[in-house]
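seq as requested:
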Amino acid sequence: MLRFMFVGDSMTIGSAGEHTWRHRMWQHLRATGTDCAVVGPRTALYGGGHDYAEPDFPQAHFAGWGEGWLHMAPAIAATVAETRADVLLISLGLIDLGFYTNAEQTAENLRRFVTGARTANPALRMVVLPVIPNIRAESDAPFAAQVARFNSLLAKAIADLDEPRSPLLLASVPESYDIHTDTYDGTHPNASGEHKLAGAFADALHQAWGVGGPYRAPLAAPLTPATG
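struct tokens:
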């Protein structure tokens, strides 16, 4: 059985009334018959509540609103040891670049994170999503340049640190991801965005390691014709 842990910031933890892409990923793993558990030291949404739109799923995670590689790197070794995680699904970086560190510093914290995680589980597998499109990058050219620079450094770090015993995998942001239709505020995913983020991780897992299967987002319910 694989023990998955979701690691992320506000886009991963979610807030009241959201399903979260974590829920979409759990649905996918269950639908593909993957023998797994979801682990993590936290269960709440942003603000501390548990008002998930659909609460009937394993809610454990290691995500926090306003947290990034800077915050997770010092804590990941103890967290992996505590949860006995086998696979980390990680979406971090936007918060770091927006508030705390530049691209180079953020990439260094990423490397610290990987090193720390492996001290707790030398066979740990990790899938990392690049910083996804967001409203600030659309209007702030210097910030957009930092995002592009970090994503380049991220790809290099994944290649440098990948090893057979503890493989690292870089997921691909879907080409169709659109901040105007896949988010509710230009940054945080709505339902379609949640499916696309879950799909990015699911397809990476399936294509690289044979875990699960291709992601199949549910079709939208057909419109009911008006009568009368």
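The first strand starts at residue 2 and ends at 8.
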